[in-house]
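The following record pairs a protein chain with its ligand, FE2/S2 (inorganic) cluster.
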Amino acid sequence: KRVEFLNYDVLSDHGWSLDDDDLFEKASEADLAPEDYGRVLVKPRESLLEAAEERGFTWPYSCRGGACANCAVAVVEGEMEMPAGQILTPEFIDQGIRLSCISAPTTDEAKVVFNVKHLPGLDELRL
Ligand code: FES
């Protein structure tokens, strides 16, 4: 599965928002650093976080077990599945927020914004 990723931190630098329809288009044209925008391949049985780390990226995490939300990503396109029993509320899941330590794409292609742990409301979930 191919995942195109974008660092949430660069959104505010450029005046972009998570809801922008052409967010990834703008990102691809913005000459961003390789750790802020790019692609990773997620192998079978690998989590998105593991796939990113395998490529040498350091994405935020803490518990690696679905209990802290530090590793949260926002899925902008595609779908990512997560096991039950994790910390996110149904509202966040409806908004496409996933925990990268325990989740992986189910679609061949996905677009995710990583590093969204500072999203309003997610902050309070973080332990
Ligand atoms: Fe804690 Fe993923 S690192 S939920």
